[in-house]
Design goal:
single chain; alpha/beta; Nucleotidyltransferase, domain 5; 8-stranded mixed β-sheet; two-stranded antiparallel ribbon; 5 helices
Length: 192
């Protein structure tokens, strides 16, 4: 199981997704948003509680910006810490990764189009995730050719999208053998 966290606090929500891998299908089995303004120590405590309820969990956390401080609070859980970049190439240094947002989103889109990701409609925030997905757009600056990925309209968040995208990326990306993550084929889902 992958517990994936996109961090926020005052203007952006912290979003959590739990992704279960069954053969070639990735199932989003839990979605959660923390209330705006929730303190980072309280966020770390809730993340730890969820982590401890899962069978064979792997924590993936957004290390961009304030994420460094929260990642420090969660180091005992050995997280894969992803710094989301605007660059062109992903780099891996142990469990600290720099991944272009383009890579996260393209991977997510390809897997959705291929029917490889399933979201349980019974999850309360699933409607919010679907709205975020529908409003998430590629924007290209014509003058520079630079691409960006974000919510199309003001006031629409993208935190659940990024949480799922990071977890899915880690579950599916091929990277150097020394960083390979192995998943058990059979496991129980603990209630969250």
């Amino acid at each position: 199981m992958i517990l994936s966290v996109d961090l926020g606090q005052s203007n952006d929500y912290t979003a959590i997704s739990v992704i279960k891998q069954e053969r070639e299908i990735l199932q989003v089995v839990h979605l959660e948003r923390f209330p705006l303004g929730m303190s980072y120590p309280a966020q770390a405590e809730r993340i730890t509680q969820l982590f401890q309820k899962l069978t064979s969990p792997l924590l993936v956390i957004d290390r961009t910006g304030v994420g460094r401080a929260v990642t420090d609070l969660l180091n005992a859980l050995n997280p894969v810490a992803i710094s989301i970049t605007g660059g062109n190439d992903a780099t891996y240094d142990g469990l600290n990764w720099n991944v272009p947002k383009r890579d996260l989103i393209h991977n997510l889109v390809v897997l959705f189009q291929g029917g490889k990701i399933k979201i349980a409609r019974s999850l309360p925030p699933s409607d919010t995730l679907i709205k975020e997905l529908l409003n998430f757009k590629l924007k290209v600056n014509i003058a520079t050719g630079h691409d960006s990925y974000e919510a199309l309209r003001e006031g629409i968040h993208d935190d659940l999208v990024l949480s799922v995208a990071m977890g899915v990326y880690v579950a599916t990306i091929e990277f150097p053998q020394e960083y390979m993550i192995y998943y058990e084929e059979d496991y129980e889902i603990s209630p969250i």
